[in-house]
Amino acid sequence: MKNGLLLEVKDLRVSIGKKDILKGVNLSIEKGEVHAIFGPNGSGKTTLLNAMMGFAGYTVKGKIIFGGKDITHLPVNERARMGIGMSFQRPPAIRGVKLRKLIEISAKGNGKFLEGYAKGLNLVDFLEREVNVGFSGGEIKRAELLQLILQNPDLVFLDEPESGVDLENIALIGEYTNHLLGRQREPNKEKTMKELYREKKKSGLIITHTGHILDYVNVDVGYILMQGRIACQANPRDMLHTIRECGFGECFRCFRGETTSVKSQKD
Amino acid sequence: MSKAKKTETQPAGDLDLSIYREETGEHPPLDDLSQLSPEDRQVLLMTGVDPSGKERSGSFFQKDHSVIHCQTDFDGAEIMSATVAREKYDGLTEYWGKIVPPDKDVYTKRAEEHQEHGYYIRSLPGANVHYPLQACLYLTEDKLAQDVHNIIIAEEGSNLNIITGCATAPGVRSGLHVGISEFFVKKGATVSFTMIHNWAEEMAVRPRSAVIVEEGGTFISNYICLVPAKNLQMYPAATLKGKGAIATFNSVLLARPGSFMDVGSRIILQGEGCRGEVISRVVSTGGTVIARGHLVGETPGIRAHLECKGLLLSDKGRIHAIPELEGKTSDLEMSHEAAVGKIAQEEVEYLMARGLSEQEATALIIKGFLSLDIVGLPADLKKELERMIVETDTEAM
Fold it and tell me: Is the CB of residue A111 less than 8 Å from the CB of residue A149?
């Protein structure tokens, strides 16, 4: 079921000023796979995405390979043009620029689908508003999804796609995140699993603190990021279960090589 | 005054007026602005004045000291030379010099002494001047002084829309423009006034404007100056006399290297329930801007807001925001917001993550910041203004 490697991160070391944030992260994402990263606050999750996206302010060592090309030191927009997209956790407001205008610039040939997706995401009125100005948490996330679906990247970084989203909106966000990632949740009787996997072309990396998004989006691989390192790689559902039951304390113990905890909180 | 001090706030009366000529010959009248040379027509277009007169209710064109074209086919409004209007209407004594007194400063004094025309625009009671009336003050000779006096009257319940463009002909480098403008917005009337400056870089410009707004009246001013101006100083003031009167001043300024712009707006809120808003957006790529604003609240219950925002794109530029709030009674609500800084890296990167280059992202942010979405600007002008902004960004980098 392997479709080939899309993203490969090798020994990524990232520092901000003199502070080392990431201390040698390795991960690889195949075409069509979606991975998730869990981790306590301050473990370096957002730094990892920002460094892979190429934002300023970070000293980056190691290698980031996308589609076979070394992009470690490419500018942000070139990475975007090569097919990497990002949903921001807290995007900035852009005064005086209408959402429609921004999408028309970034969507290139997909602009004709704008109205349809805007309707589906309940954002029709927002097209005439300034980007992220006065948007609520849920509106911000939906607007990010709308921009990304039309930008149509091959690899999507999603930074806390469910944070600040109320219960009513989370299902909608989940549905369109699946769409963005080229995934349908409904079983398809016409095709075999093998065929479906081969059709999957979009890849994603989701950062999530709460894991709620995993109730809607199937994720193939989960990681725990801790103190700047990948502490663990496993089935994301098992991982989430453990974190929900025991918090990250369990991971800390494991990470430090101590014996596993005795009981989960339920007992 | 020491050298260092000289770049500080320049008081009115600082210019050497002796270098400008007062006299010039008369220009022949024109039936139609489309008879102007292609170069002149181009300048006009970029000043908001459409020589074709398309979607305009009327036009006024003053070249140096001559009014060479003036016409309107709209019954609800008058447009003519202010000098002609004074002859026709007993000196316009009710209005002339009433809110910009001639002895206000050296410029109002010289404008009174040397006045050559200017325009008189009046909308009749209840008239709705949907398409704007356009007026252009054009300077075609180097080192010439142009002193005009404009009178704008919106009669009761009327709706008046004006675009004024002030420009110099290609090849002219310097000159002096002094313009007195007196606005009378009567009961329930609305005036929307857009002024675009498109001067040569060595021009010295001294507009002197005042506005009176009566009960239920609205005055909206949009001022745009994106070209270098060696020395521009203005501080128009609106007095809201009547109950529920409203005034809004929007200014959009771009200061390139060598520009000095001291621009402010003042609103004096006297009537019950009056509202006022002063918004300025300033970008400096090396020029100096003093962005002033002054709200004076004199009656309980008024509300007013002042917003000065500046983007400084070069270390050589200077933006000095001076917002002033003056409350003279309790129970009023006045606020201000001032910010001067560079473009936020976070915003640039956000747009770059959507595939825009750094330059495209910066240009889009500056365009948004200056918000040129002013109703009634011709499409060509808007495009040209946007092009100028993109250029700006390139020169600042």
Answer: no
Size of interface A-B (CB pairs under 8 A): 67
| Strands of chain B, DSSP E | 58-63, 66-72, 77-81, 119-123, 133-139, 144-154, 159-168, 174-185, 190-198, 202-213, 218-225, 231-234, 237-240, 246-255, 260-269, 275-284, 288-297, 303-312, 318-327, 333-341
Which candidate from B354, B360, B368 shows the least CB-CB separation from A95? B368
Residue A182's pLDDT is what?
86
Q: Which residues pair with B240 in a beta bridge?
A: B213, B269
| Whether B166 contacts B47, CB under 8 Å | yes
- How does pLDDT run across A53-104, given as a tens digit for each residue? 999 999 999 999 999 999 999 999 999 999 999 999 999 999 989 999 999 9
pLDDT digits (tens, 9 = 90+) for B202-212: 999 999 999 99
A85 contacts in B (CB within 8 Å)?
Answer: 353
Q: Say if the Cβ atoms of A96 and B368 lie within 8 Å.
A: yes
Strand order in the sheet with B133-139: B66-72, B58-63, B133-139, B159-168, B190-198, B218-225, B246-255, B275-284, B303-312, B333-341
Of A80, A85, A95, the CB nearest to B369: A95
For residues B309 and A108, give the distance between their C-alpha atoms in angstroms, rounded to a whole number.
32
Residue A118 pLDDT > 90: yes
Amino acid code (one letter) for A79: R
Distance from CA of A50 to the nearest CA of B (A): 10
CB-CB under 8 Å, A91 with B356 = no
Count the helix, strand and coil residues of chain A and give each as a percent rounded to the nearest 5. 35, 25, 35
Q: Are strands B231-234 and B202-213 parallel, antiparallel or unpaired?
A: parallel
Question: Which chain A residues are within 8 Å of B357, Cβ to Cβ?
Answer: 77
Computed over every residue of chain A, the mean pLDDT equals 88
Q: Is B365 in contact with A85 (Cβ distance < 8 A)?
A: no
H helix intervals, chain B: 3-6, 38-45, 82-88, 106-114, 345-352, 358-370, 379-396
User: How confident is the model at residue B233, as a pLDDT?
Assistant: 95
